[in-house]
């Protein structure tokens, strides 16, 4: 039981860390002389480092909002989980925790999908999608699985 | 010089002659230049065809001198060199009459109030660039020129963070609303259950058939659900009677 508990908390925290890193790190799109994240579009031209704020596209703000929301929901889910751990009756399911976590996973999925569809308009098509983008995609199944486990799991103690 | 004369008049009454002469001598010396800080905006957005006022002001510790100068220069995006487009000196403004802002530039500042603003009219996409303002308030001449970047748009873009904030705020607001409605419903349901149980106890206390008959229609005036609840209770009571 304890191992299961630790495992699910670990899964949750891992998803949360992935979300956080992918939101903040400037590697959603990488290329030879440029890198961009959800906040800035930086490039090196003639040895000069130049950053452009992400105010030009409306959709990038939607991605920002979805990523932040997924982090917030995941954090709420973690807090609710610990609350339910102590207050839930024996045999009860962690429905509330699971709902929040599944919502978080849906948010990150929406954000990543929007980025996939819209990124050619923002960055040059020659550049490849970076590892922070991949992290966001990895965080989606992790969050979804942990959310489903929360729903399936019954409280034993 | 006026200041020096004034101090000499004031000081002459009390202090010795030697002292105020030395003070005045100090003031007559080539004055020390102090730092001057120049302010412009950071970035300005404008629509094509509109006018924009680029403001420039400065701070220095001295009074505004008559020799105050303002100069604006312009560097187009992608160009390496900047060209001078405006100069104010000796109380007269000199505007660009050959360069890119021919007939489109106007001085709207007030040098006496340390304002060296210019107005650019009928903006075009070619006006994208960096505008640098430099001001001198002799003898304060040591200062860094300040630059403002002008971006000309077809439509003004939405500020960064507005949509982000709107989406996050909407979702979190919805969440709070759901929680509030949930607790409100629970509160209302709890109160209704409480009321029903109270009325039940009341009936039990009276224990008479007549009072019951009177209470049921009074309840049924409300909503049908209450009527149902009342009816079901009536049934329960009847079944209890049967058991008895």
TrEMBL record, chain A:
Topology relative to the lipid bilayer, per the entry, is: Multi-pass membrane protein
Q: Which Pfam families match?
A: PMP22_Claudin (PF00822)
Subcellular locations according to the entry: Membrane
Superkingdom per UniProt: Eukaryota
| Record keywords, A-Z | Membrane, Signal, Transmembrane, Transmembrane helix
Record Gene3D superfamilies: 1.20.140.150
* GO cellular component terms, semicolon-separated: plasma membrane
> According to the UniProt entry, where is the signal peptide?
1-27
The keyword Transport belongs to this UniProt entry's keyword annotation: no
Transmembrane ranges, per UniProt, are 62-82, 94-118, 130-153
Note the PANTHER family from the entry: EPITHELIAL MEMBRANE PROTEIN-RELATED, PERIPHERAL MYELIN PROTEIN 22
- State the family named in the UniProt similarity comment for this chain: Belongs to the PMP-22/EMP/MP20 family.
What name has this protein been given in UniProt?
Peripheral myelin protein 22
Q: Which organism is it from?
A: Esox lucius (Northern pike)
UniProtKB/TrEMBL annotation, chain B:
GO terms for biological process? myelination
Name the membrane topology term.
Single-pass type I membrane protein
Q: Which PROSITE patterns match?
A: IG_LIKE
Residue ranges occupied by any Ig-like domain in the UniProt entry: 30-151
Give the location in the cell. Membrane
Ordered alphabetically, the record's keywords are:
Disulfide bond, Glycoprotein, Immunoglobulin domain, Membrane, Signal, Transmembrane, Transmembrane helix
This protein's record includes keyword Signal: yes
- Spell out the InterPro entries in the cross-references: Ig-like_dom (IPR007110), Ig-like_dom_sf (IPR036179), Ig-like_fold (IPR013783), Ig_sub (IPR003599), Ig_V-set (IPR013106), Myelin_P0-rel (IPR000920)
Renumbered residue ranges of the record's region Disordered: 201-244
- Which spans does this entry mark as compositional bias, Basic and acidic residues? 231-244
Q: What transmembrane ranges does the database entry give? A: 160-184
Using the record for this protein, list the coiled-coil segments as residue ranges, or answer none.
none
GO-annotated cellular components: plasma membrane
Short name of any one Pfam family annotated for the protein: V-set
Signal sequence coordinates: none
Is the Transmembrane helix keyword given for this protein? Answer: yes
Which PANTHER family does the record associate with it?
Answer: MYELIN P0 RELATED, MYELIN PROTEIN P0
Similarity comment text for this entry:
Belongs to the myelin P0 protein family.
Q: What is this protein called?
A: Ig-like domain-containing protein
Organism of derivation: Esox lucius (Northern pike)
């Amino acid at each position: 039981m304890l191992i299961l508990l630790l495992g699910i908390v670990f899964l949750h925290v891992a998803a949360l860390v992935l979300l956080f890193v992918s939101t903040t790190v400037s590697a959603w799109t990488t290329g030879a002389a440029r890198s961009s994240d959800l906040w800035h579009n930086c490039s090196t031209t003639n040895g000069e480092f130049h950053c452009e704020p992400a105010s030009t596209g409306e959709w990038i703000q939607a991605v920002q909002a979805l990523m932040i929301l997924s982090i917030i929901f995941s954090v709420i889910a973690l807090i609710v989980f610990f609350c339910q751990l102590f207050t839930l009756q024996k045999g009860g399911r962690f429905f509330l925790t699971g709902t929040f976590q599944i919502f978080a996973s849906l948010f990150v999925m929406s954000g990543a999908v929007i980025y996939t569809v819209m990124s050619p308009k923002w960055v040059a098509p020659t550049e490849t999608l970076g590892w922070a983008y991949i992290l966001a995609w990895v965080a989606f199944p992790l969050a979804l699985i942990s959310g489903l486990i929360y729903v399936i799991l019954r409280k034993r103690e | 010089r006026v200041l020096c004369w004034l101090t000499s008049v004031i000081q002459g009454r009390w202090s010795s002659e030697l002292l105020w002469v030395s003070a005045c001598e100090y003031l007559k010396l080539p004055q020390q230049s102090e730092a001057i800080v120049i302010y412009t905006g950071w970035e300005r957005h404008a629509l094509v065809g509109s006018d924009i006022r680029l403001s420039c002001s400065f701070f220095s510790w001295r009074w505004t001198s008559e020799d105050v100068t303002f100069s604006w220069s312009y560097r187009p995006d992608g160009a390496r060199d900047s060209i001078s487009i405006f100069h104010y000196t000796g109380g007269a403004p000199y505007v660009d009459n050959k360069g890119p802002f021919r007939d489109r530039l106007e001085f709207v500042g007030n040098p006496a109030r340390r304002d060296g603003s210019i107005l650019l009219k009928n903006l075009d996409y070619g006006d994208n660039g960096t505008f640098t303002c430099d001001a001198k308030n002799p003898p304060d001449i040591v200062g860094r020129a300040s630059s403002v970047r002008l971006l000309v748009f077809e439509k003004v873009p939405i500020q960064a963070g507005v949509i982000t904030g709107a989406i996050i705020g909407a979702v979190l607001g919805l969440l709070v609303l759901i929680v509030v409605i949930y607790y409100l419903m629970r509160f209302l349901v709890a109160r209704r259950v409480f009321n029903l149980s109270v009325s039940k106890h009341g009936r039990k206390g009276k224990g008479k058939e007549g009072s019951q008959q009177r209470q049921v229609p009074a309840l049924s005036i409300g909503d049908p659900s209450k009527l149902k609840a009342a009816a079901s209770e009536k049934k329960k009571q009847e079944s209890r009677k049967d058991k008895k």
